[in-house]
Amino acid sequence: MNTEDGRGHSMREASRLPAMTTEPATANSRPLERDAQVAMSHHDVSPNDIALGVVIGRASEYFDFFVFGIASVLVFPKVFFPFADPLTGTLYSFAIFALAFITRPIGSILFMRIHARYGRGVKLTSALFLLGGSTAAVSFLPSYNSIGQVSIELLAFLRILQGLALGGAWDGLASLLALNAPRERRGWYAMIPQLGAPIGFMVSSALFSFFVVNLTTDDFLDWGWRFPFFCAFTINVVALFARLRLIATPEFTRLLDKGHLQPVGIVDLARHHALDVWIGAFVPLASFALFHLVTIFPIAWNTLHSDRSAGDFLMVQFSGAIICAGAVAASGLIADQIGRRNILIITAGLIAAFAFGSILAPLIFGENAIGQTIYVNIGFMLLGLSYGQTAGAVTSRLGTRYRYTGAALTSDLAWLFGAGFAPLVVLYLSNEYGLAVVGVYLLSGALATLLALSLDRSEMRQM
């Protein structure tokens, strides 16, 4: 991706100011970061560096996210809830899955305090080690048959730690990228962080599919499922160094200071932008509601109500994630032509139409393999088009001083309301009342997005 063209002139100039301007940034840093900044003082921060750091960081976070989500369907009901029937065991797993979304806002607040006291580098390092460590630790958990109820408690505890770490993993790279984007290409730069989601899903689904297809059921449930969790620590370390390579430079610190991307108190944020945070949290609900209904929920329904191989279905979703990545990129091009607000309205309308189709013809996603494939691919395409612009939507109303903290907290609330309980609620209701419930849930998310957009008639923009 070439961002060093005429349209990216302002970003290029911002990243190549004379070295003398880096001294104030170093002076304003925490002691633990100064040595690293001096060591990296020769390194220039270009827009390509920021974009790469954003994608790598987001992909690692989503890998952890999806590994746990997929295992909540294929592994946890049998390993940690063998005393329950398959449906109940999956519902128990989804309840634990939701814990991370509850604790994520708490993690954002906690790690903002760490940032204020010890610096951005310490905050990010501790958050990513906690995220990778807690995810990897799941791979070592004994089964319920080995230690009983304690295994479930440990799983829930590690999931809570994941949520806290995800809240702390916010590094400001996405906002920095947006703040330095040329006005005519803000939609394009806003979509770059969102590519992490389909990439993370592709890696996690491919790993699980490989082990499901190539191992016996006993071997997979004994040790095969543990490998993707074990890989999480290595992936997070790689992502950490990719991001610290940027954060440990005086140029990066100067750009953050210039954009006022520093943490502020939650009370201060609420006093000035409480309404903006709530509206921002509801703007992406159509996208976030769809998020789990084309990734985690279909795996559960296929496993519980279909004879189709889980490995085969995961590869169908893998192809859908490729479509999603292309749609995310397309959303940036479209947003630069018609505006972010317009594309959010259009995609919310398309998701609503997709929801009506699911209500009127729920059997399309039943045991019909072709219908399942069509549902997944259309869903992933709509997800990419809508999700591609949600990063800017949740912070478009915030001033630069409140953007760093506001972006993190707004995103946390949007995930909590839009996606945190989606697999649990939809699986339970669809099992009780039929697959039409999937459409009803999607429709509610689309209506919430349209309502939030009607309350905010300003053009979504990166300021």
UniProtKB/TrEMBL annotation:
Domain Major facilitator superfamily (MFS) profile residues, every copy: 50-457
Name under which the protein is recorded: Inner membrane metabolite transport protein YhjE
Alphabetic keyword roster: Cell membrane, Membrane, Transmembrane, Transmembrane helix, Transport
InterPro entries assigned: MFS (IPR011701), MFS_dom (IPR020846), MFS_trans_sf (IPR036259), Sugar_transporter_CS (IPR005829)
Region described as Disordered: 1-30
Residue ranges, compositional bias (Basic and acidic residues): 1-15
Transmembrane segments: 65-84, 90-112, 124-144, 156-179, 191-213, 225-244, 277-301, 313-335, 342-364, 370-388, 409-429, 435-455
Annotated membrane topology: Multi-pass membrane protein
One Pfam family in the UniProt entry: MFS_1
Compartments, as annotated in UniProt: Cell membrane
